[in-house]
Write a structure and sequence with these properties.
The protein contains 9 helices and no strands. With 191 residues, it is an all-alpha fold. The protein has 2 domains: 78 residues, Rna Polymerase Sigma Factor, Chain: A (Orthogonal Bundle); 88 residues, Winged helix-like DNA-binding domain superfamily/Winged helix DNA-binding domain (Arc Repressor Mutant, subunit A, Orthogonal Bundle), CATH 1.10.10. Helix 4 crosses helix 8.
Protein backbone atom coordinates (compact mmCIF):
# COMPACT_ATOMS: atom_id res chain seq x y z
CA UNK A 1 0.00 0.00 0.00
CA UNK A 2 1.29 3.44 -0.91
CA UNK A 3 1.52 5.85 2.02
CA UNK A 4 -0.19 9.19 1.45
CA UNK A 5 1.69 12.21 2.80
CA UNK A 6 0.31 13.51 6.10
CA UNK A 7 -0.32 17.01 4.75
CA UNK A 8 -2.43 15.59 1.91
CA UNK A 9 -4.32 13.40 4.41
CA UNK A 10 -5.11 16.41 6.60
CA UNK A 11 -6.25 18.49 3.58
CA UNK A 12 -8.52 15.67 2.41
CA UNK A 13 -9.86 15.03 5.92
CA UNK A 14 -10.56 18.75 6.27
CA UNK A 15 -12.67 18.42 3.10
CA UNK A 16 -14.59 15.51 4.68
CA UNK A 17 -12.89 12.51 3.05
CA UNK A 18 -13.76 9.45 5.13
CA UNK A 19 -11.36 7.37 3.02
CA UNK A 20 -8.40 9.58 3.98
CA UNK A 21 -9.53 9.66 7.60
CA UNK A 22 -9.50 5.84 7.59
CA UNK A 23 -5.96 5.89 6.12
CA UNK A 24 -4.84 8.19 8.96
CA UNK A 25 -6.60 6.00 11.51
CA UNK A 26 -5.12 2.77 10.10
CA UNK A 27 -1.60 4.19 9.99
CA UNK A 28 -1.49 5.73 13.49
CA UNK A 29 -3.97 3.77 15.62
CA UNK A 30 -1.69 0.90 16.69
CA UNK A 31 1.24 3.24 17.36
CA UNK A 32 -0.87 5.48 19.61
CA UNK A 33 -2.50 2.48 21.29
CA UNK A 34 0.92 1.00 22.12
CA UNK A 35 2.00 4.25 23.79
CA UNK A 36 -1.24 4.53 25.78
CA UNK A 37 -1.26 0.87 26.77
CA UNK A 38 2.30 1.05 28.17
CA UNK A 39 1.19 3.68 30.69
CA UNK A 40 -2.40 2.77 31.52
CA UNK A 41 -3.35 -0.30 33.56
CA UNK A 42 -6.20 -1.45 31.33
CA UNK A 43 -6.19 -2.00 27.57
CA UNK A 44 -9.77 -0.68 27.47
CA UNK A 45 -8.54 2.67 28.85
CA UNK A 46 -5.83 2.79 26.18
CA UNK A 47 -8.41 2.08 23.48
CA UNK A 48 -10.67 4.82 24.88
CA UNK A 49 -7.84 7.37 24.81
CA UNK A 50 -6.95 6.64 21.18
CA UNK A 51 -10.57 6.43 20.08
CA UNK A 52 -11.33 9.83 21.64
CA UNK A 53 -8.41 11.36 19.72
CA UNK A 54 -9.77 10.20 16.38
CA UNK A 55 -13.34 11.16 17.25
CA UNK A 56 -12.10 14.64 18.16
CA UNK A 57 -10.16 14.92 14.89
CA UNK A 58 -13.22 13.98 12.87
CA UNK A 59 -15.48 16.38 14.78
CA UNK A 60 -13.00 19.25 14.31
CA UNK A 61 -11.89 18.27 10.81
CA UNK A 62 -13.05 21.47 9.09
CA UNK A 63 -10.93 23.68 11.35
CA UNK A 64 -8.00 21.27 11.69
CA UNK A 65 -4.63 22.97 11.34
CA UNK A 66 -1.78 20.51 11.84
CA UNK A 67 1.75 20.86 10.49
CA UNK A 68 3.28 17.72 12.01
CA UNK A 69 0.62 15.00 12.19
CA UNK A 70 2.76 12.47 14.06
CA UNK A 71 3.86 15.02 16.64
CA UNK A 72 0.32 16.29 17.03
CA UNK A 73 -1.10 12.79 17.57
CA UNK A 74 1.64 11.80 20.03
CA UNK A 75 0.96 14.98 22.02
CA UNK A 76 -2.76 14.18 21.97
CA UNK A 77 -2.13 10.68 23.30
CA UNK A 78 0.08 12.02 26.11
CA UNK A 79 -2.65 14.46 27.19
CA UNK A 80 -5.29 11.73 26.86
CA UNK A 81 -3.26 9.44 29.12
CA UNK A 82 -2.85 12.20 31.72
CA UNK A 83 -6.58 12.93 31.64
CA UNK A 84 -7.45 9.23 32.02
CA UNK A 85 -4.99 8.79 34.93
CA UNK A 86 -6.39 11.85 36.68
CA UNK A 87 -9.94 10.57 36.25
CA UNK A 88 -9.03 7.09 37.55
CA UNK A 89 -7.13 8.40 40.60
CA UNK A 90 -9.90 10.88 41.38
CA UNK A 91 -12.52 8.14 41.22
CA UNK A 92 -10.46 5.83 43.47
CA UNK A 93 -9.85 8.61 46.00
CA UNK A 94 -13.55 9.49 46.11
CA UNK A 95 -14.48 5.83 46.60
CA UNK A 96 -12.04 5.46 49.50
CA UNK A 97 -13.35 8.52 51.32
CA UNK A 98 -16.97 7.61 50.57
CA UNK A 99 -16.46 4.14 52.06
CA UNK A 100 -14.90 5.64 55.16
CA UNK A 101 -17.88 7.96 55.66
CA UNK A 102 -20.47 5.27 54.99
CA UNK A 103 -18.79 2.41 56.80
CA UNK A 104 -20.70 1.37 59.91
CA UNK A 105 -18.22 -1.11 61.42
CA UNK A 106 -15.95 0.96 63.69
CA UNK A 107 -12.98 -1.44 63.53
CA UNK A 108 -12.99 -1.42 59.73
CA UNK A 109 -13.52 2.32 59.71
CA UNK A 110 -10.45 2.83 61.90
CA UNK A 111 -8.38 0.60 59.60
CA UNK A 112 -9.58 2.61 56.59
CA UNK A 113 -8.76 5.87 58.34
CA UNK A 114 -5.28 4.54 59.08
CA UNK A 115 -4.88 3.77 55.40
CA UNK A 116 -6.03 7.25 54.41
CA UNK A 117 -3.54 8.73 56.88
CA UNK A 118 -0.86 6.50 55.35
CA UNK A 119 -1.68 7.77 51.84
CA UNK A 120 -1.78 11.37 53.06
CA UNK A 121 1.62 10.79 54.69
CA UNK A 122 3.01 9.64 51.35
CA UNK A 123 1.58 12.75 49.69
CA UNK A 124 3.15 14.92 52.41
CA UNK A 125 6.56 13.55 51.36
CA UNK A 126 6.19 15.05 47.87
CA UNK A 127 8.18 18.17 47.02
CA UNK A 128 6.25 21.18 48.39
CA UNK A 129 4.98 22.56 45.05
CA UNK A 130 4.01 19.09 43.82
CA UNK A 131 2.17 18.37 47.10
CA UNK A 132 0.33 21.71 47.03
CA UNK A 133 -0.84 21.27 43.44
CA UNK A 134 -1.83 17.62 43.95
CA UNK A 135 -3.90 18.44 47.05
CA UNK A 136 -5.67 21.30 45.26
CA UNK A 137 -6.46 18.96 42.40
CA UNK A 138 -7.50 15.85 44.32
CA UNK A 139 -8.84 17.07 47.64
CA UNK A 140 -10.26 20.47 46.71
CA UNK A 141 -11.30 19.26 43.24
CA UNK A 142 -9.95 22.37 41.47
CA UNK A 143 -9.38 22.18 37.73
CA UNK A 144 -5.89 22.62 36.32
CA UNK A 145 -6.87 26.05 35.05
CA UNK A 146 -8.19 27.09 38.49
CA UNK A 147 -5.00 25.87 40.17
CA UNK A 148 -2.82 27.72 37.66
CA UNK A 149 -4.75 30.93 38.26
CA UNK A 150 -4.69 30.53 42.04
CA UNK A 151 -0.93 29.87 42.15
CA UNK A 152 -0.05 32.22 39.29
CA UNK A 153 1.62 29.46 37.22
CA UNK A 154 0.93 27.91 33.82
CA UNK A 155 -1.51 25.05 33.32
CA UNK A 156 1.32 22.99 31.83
CA UNK A 157 3.23 23.38 35.12
CA UNK A 158 0.13 22.16 36.95
CA UNK A 159 -0.19 19.17 34.60
CA UNK A 160 3.50 18.32 34.98
CA UNK A 161 3.32 18.43 38.79
CA UNK A 162 0.17 16.27 38.88
CA UNK A 163 1.78 13.74 36.56
CA UNK A 164 4.87 13.75 38.78
CA UNK A 165 2.70 13.09 41.86
CA UNK A 166 0.84 10.27 40.13
CA UNK A 167 4.13 8.66 39.10
CA UNK A 168 5.40 8.91 42.68
CA UNK A 169 2.24 7.23 44.01
CA UNK A 170 2.23 4.59 41.30
CA UNK A 171 5.91 3.76 41.91
CA UNK A 172 5.46 3.30 45.68
CA UNK A 173 5.34 -0.48 46.29
CA UNK A 174 4.31 -0.04 49.92
CA UNK A 175 1.35 2.11 48.83
CA UNK A 176 0.39 -0.54 46.28
CA UNK A 177 0.36 -3.14 49.07
CA UNK A 178 -1.77 -0.87 51.27
CA UNK A 179 -4.31 -0.33 48.47
CA UNK A 180 -4.47 -4.09 47.90
CA UNK A 181 -5.16 -4.45 51.64
CA UNK A 182 -7.92 -1.80 51.32
CA UNK A 183 -9.59 -3.68 48.48
CA UNK A 184 -9.53 -6.95 50.46
CA UNK A 185 -10.87 -5.13 53.52
CA UNK A 186 -13.71 -3.59 51.54
CA UNK A 187 -14.65 -6.96 49.98
CA UNK A 188 -14.71 -8.61 53.41
CA UNK A 189 -16.77 -5.79 54.93
CA UNK A 190 -19.38 -5.91 52.15
CA UNK A 191 -19.86 -9.66 52.43
Amino acid sequence: MVRVADDILIDEIRDGSERHFKLLFDYYWSRLYTIANRTLDRSEDAEDVVQEIFIDIWKRRESLKVDNVGGYLYTCVRFGIAKKLKKNISRKTEEIFENIRDHSDMAHSLELQDLVQFVEGKIDQFPSRCKEIFKLSRFEQLSNKEIAKKLNITTSTVENQINKALKLLKADDQLSNEITFLVILLILSIG
